[in-house]
Design a protein that fits this description.
This is Transposase. Helix content is about 35%, strand content about 25%. It has about 60 residues and is an alpha+beta fold. It has one domain (about 5-60).
């Protein structure tokens, strides 16, 4: 795996999957788009895993 791919995976995980305490449990992507994840049902859920399991979570597609 190259550095560019590793950085892309980390960026996606950090911004779209990992909830942030400072954002009241929302991801940065949800905050930027003004989405309240507690009021809107996702269109689909996808398991995300990268870096041999170090980055893992569920992506809520909206």
């Amino acid at each position: 795996m190259g550095l560019q791919q590793a950085m892309a995976e980390f960026t996606f995980w950090y911004n779209a999957i990992r909830p942030h305490q400072h954002l009241n449990g929302r991801t940065p992507l949800e905050a930027w788009q003004g989405i309240d994840p507690y009021q809107q049902i996702p269109n689909g859920t996808y398991l995300f895993q990268a870096w041999d399991g170090l980055l893992a979570g569920v992506y809520l597609r909206r």
